[in-house]
UniProtKB/TrEMBL annotation:
Keywords: Lyase. It holds the Pfam family DHDPS. Gene3D superfamilies: Aldolase class I (3.20.20.70). This is Dihydrodipicolinate synthase family protein. The active site is at residues 135, 164. PANTHER family: N-ACETYLNEURAMINATE LYASE. Belongs to the DapA family. It comes from Mycolicibacter sinensis (strain JDM601) (Mycobacterium sinense). Transmembrane segments: none annotated. GO terms for molecular function: N-acetylneuraminate lyase activity. GO terms for biological process: N-acetylneuraminate catabolic process. Pyruvate binds at residue 47.
Length: 291
């Protein structure tokens, strides 16, 4: 399964309507990503506002996303929750619905020990028969997993087969490669770091940016893969202002605003998140103006 995930993995927003999931708009967003040429679809990441969904909404989003992809690409579903029980339930639901892999970040109010983190992932692995992407994003989850821990789980837990590293620390990615002798694929989850990460051997780029500018993202990945580093640098320089903007303003907030500007009624993020303010929309309009 791990070999199927590579390249540019597109993260759709979760559109809301009348308090629930707007599956029609979600299908439009996913169709746009698939038609643009991304290599996989990853609903229910940070961009998809997973942390703000009820369990029925989670299930509805999984079902609608997998139906929209319709087997055209691999699907990686985010299933993280504060508790192991709900994370396991979500992972089972996603796997049974047809997900090719699930993504798990250990989310915690209390600081977790390595023993607790490992037990958490083991429980998910025991519950499903699909690959698990171990997602390290301490800025949102409150838990920071070291390269040593990630490689140890890769070696000891059956379904932990990939890592998404979102700290923006390139040395961690290089450490993962060294400790695993190159056996553990890592994906870059830090948009501004993408060029350096791909040059360092990242298996791909997990990103919401293709919702707004898909082709330059795909061209950047292709250029690095082909060793055309000057072309890759030029593409990155062009994309960098947008990448920095969507990260600084919050992915759900900025990407939904950008989709609205591009004519896709993605709606507002769920409170306590608020829509992008007028100044932000003006800046984003300028960044997208060339389209």
């Amino acid at each position: 399964m791990a070999a199927q995930l590579r390249g540019v993995i597109g993260y759709p927003v979760t559109p809301f309507s009348d308090g629930g999931i707007d599956t029609a708009v979600l299908t439009t967003v996913i169709d746009h990503l698939v038609d643009a040429g991304v290599h996989a679809i990853a609903p229910l990441g940070s961009t998809g506002e997973l942390a703000y969904l009820s369990e029925p909404e989670f299930d509805a989003c999984v079902d609608a996303s997998i139906a929209a992809v319709a087997g055209r690409l691999p699907v990686l579903v985010g299933v993280s929750d504060l508790t192991t029980a709900t994370t396991v339930r979500r992972a089972r639901y996603a796997a049974q619905a047809g997900a090719d892999a699930v993504m798990v970040a250990p989310v915690s109010y209390w600081k977790l020990s390595e023993r607790e983190i490992t037990t958490h992932y083991q429980a998910v692995s025991d519950a499903v028969d699909v690959d698990i992407v171990a997602y390290n994003n301490p800025a949102t989850s409150g838990v920071d997993m070291s390269p040593e821990l990630l490689v140890n789980m890769f070696e000891s837990i059956e379904h932990v087969t990939m890592v998404k590293e979102s700290t923006g620390d390139l040395t961690r990615m290089l450490r993962i490669t060294k400790l695993s002798d190159g056996r553990l694929p890592f994906f870059n989850g830090s948009n501004p770091l993408v060029l350096d990460a791909l040059r360092a051997g990242a298996a791909g780029w997990c990103t919401a940016a293709p919702n707004l500018r898909a082709q330059p993202c795909l061209d950047l990945y292709a250029a690095v893969s082909a060793g055309e580093l000057d072309t890759a640098q030029a593409l990155y320089d062009d994309l960098k202002p947008l990448l920095e903007f969507i990260v600084a303003g919050g992915l759900a907030t900025t990407v939904k605003a950008g989709l609205e500007l591009l004519g896709v009624p993605a709606g507002a993020p769920r409170r306590p998140l608020l829509p992008l303010d007028d100044a932000g929309r003006a800046e984003l309009r300028g960044l997208l103006g060339e389209l």
